Input
Amino acid sequence: MVSVKQENAHLSKKDADLFYKLYFGLLQYTNEKYEIRPSYNVVKKKKINPSDLTEFVDKFWKCKDTIIDEFCSDNPYSFSKDELDIIVEFKKGFRNNFIIVGFTKEYTILMYLDKAYMIKGITSNIDETFSYTNIPSFVETSIMPFKGHLIYDGLLYGYPIDFGPNFSYVVNKEYSKAIKCYHL
Output
């Protein structure tokens, strides 16, 4: 897989702000429901260290269907019907380990089993975070639908594993056969 410099591989500022509003609302709801860190308020934070969210994210993805159903029923932040519809779509998402296979102008390619997920970044292109020289890279993240695109949840944990040239060859061969997924 040949990677190219990404040009439009992230959401618009308006959509990124909407995503964070909805997702952070879900994470705060998760925090309150399961009393993970009662004094921590995800929604009211101006700047968040991603590692501060790990416990909330892990719990949310383990119980996402229940949390989403209860959140939409309670609607603690008075989200609109359209916003709640977006949140319901998050049920199709999943958290796992993936291999970053490469970058196209508009997408980052994450492989899992026989599928290549074509995802967008949230506020910036993912190639600004992960170097082309480190592809393929083993990462943990969540993939979810958002307004007609696949995105990750803003948390992308890389693992310092050095793959040899044979692995790159195998990944490229598998990518050529993989089903390209733009939607879940």
